[in-house]
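ABC-2 type transport system permease protein: structure, please.
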Amino acid sequence: MTVSTIHDIGYRHYEGRRLGRGYVLRSLFVHNLRAAYGLGRPARAKVMPFLLLAVMMLPSVGSVAAVAITKEPRGLIPYAAYANILQVVIAIFLATQAPVLASRELRFHVVPLYFSRPVGHLDFVLAKLAAMTTALLALLTLPVTLLYVGGLVTKVPDSGEHLVRYLTALVGCALFAVVLASIGLVVSAFTPRRGFGVAAVIAVYMLTSAFVVIVQGLAEMRTNFTLAGWVGLLTPFNLVDIVQVRLLGAPRSSAAMPEGTLAGMVALAVCVALVAGSTAVLYARFRKAGLS
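Here you go.
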């Protein structure tokens, strides 16, 4: 005869407030945003993101200093052109930090643990996308804001016009951030090892840029300037620059660009399609990982 005994080992039911899905989503966003800058991680994880942020700030500091010394307001770097000028630094930041957000859970097979909580697959993806976008937005807007404040301090003429250009540049920065974040996370999500993810994102940036430069050069040699302009849609930096110039009235910074408002609308539609498509791909990728 078997005798069963029930032992009271002191566990108590949770009786506190249920914070729910919104709190989980917000926590995921904050956790991933902190991870993008190495916060809450060892010191070596902070070196690269903050070093790149410092590099991004240097040209704006130099530009403001030059304007203050020479009293020549035209020496101020155009706000909307800043991202294009420093696109290599931005690409390195994306390549080094996107795998931190997209591939760590995949590498350690802990994605199913996230979905054991009241958070959906789309919530998980949106939190990561929002965090990477916010990290890039900080990288882009801080130096542009320093340029604007420096311009005001050095008393550039027509401060109202500079405010309009600054606000236009902020819209462009937001578009740059969400498009680049989408591309970087998708590439990183299919390369679970961080080193491969870094190399893959850099390869995508370099190959698309090289392809566009070569095609534009050949098209211009044949005086086919229309093709040279439209092929710029194939690189994220030129793509967003087309939107800035053709729809927002920003100064032109790309060598070749399609003419007219229609070009801006097409470029904006491509940006929307890129973000929506990337979100769908990330959803499918993490959903599959959550079931395995």
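Notes: The chain has a mean pLDDT of 87.
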